[in-house]
Amino acid sequence: MAFSYIPIGVDIEKIVKFSEMKYIKDNLYHPGEKDEINNVQMNQSDLWFFICWTRKEALLKAIGKGLTIKTESFQVSCDPNKADLHHSPDPYNQWRILNTPPIDENYVSSLCIGGTLKTIKFRSVNI
C-alpha cells in the first residue's frame, strides 16, 4: 500500500517460476529487457524477470492506465542495481523508478513516482 500527494505506483510479486515466463518475456518485454535477461547468469534470470515485471507494473499503475499501454512499448532496467526507465510510455511526466527495500528472498517489489518527494518511508506490516 502506498500514500502520496503525487502519482505513485507499487507492485509486489513472489518469485515463482511458471510456464508462461518465456512467452511473457518474448512477447511482452521490450527487446532491450529481453537482452538483459538473456545475458544474465541462468541462476539470476528469474529474479531479473520479476524485477523487470514489477517495475513495468509499478509504472503503469502510477500512470493510471494499467495494461492499456503495451508493456513492450517501453523499457525499464531489469538489473536490481539500476532502477532506470529508458523509454517512457508517458513523455509528459517525470517518472522515476526506485529500488525498494527487500521484503524477503522470495519477493521483489518496485516503486514508481511521478515527480519529486523529499522523503520516502518504507514500513513493514505483519498480517
TrEMBL record:
Domain 4'-phosphopantetheinyl transferase per the UniProt entry, residue ranges: 7-97
Stretches of the chain forming a coiled coil according to its record: none
UniProt keyword annotation of Transferase present: yes
InterPro entries the record matches: 4-PPantetheinyl_Trfase_dom, 4-PPantetheinyl_Trfase_dom_sf
Pfam family, any one: ACPS
Key words, A-Z: Transferase
Protein name: 4'-phosphopantetheinyl transferase domain-containing protein
Organism of origin: Polynucleobacter yangtzensis
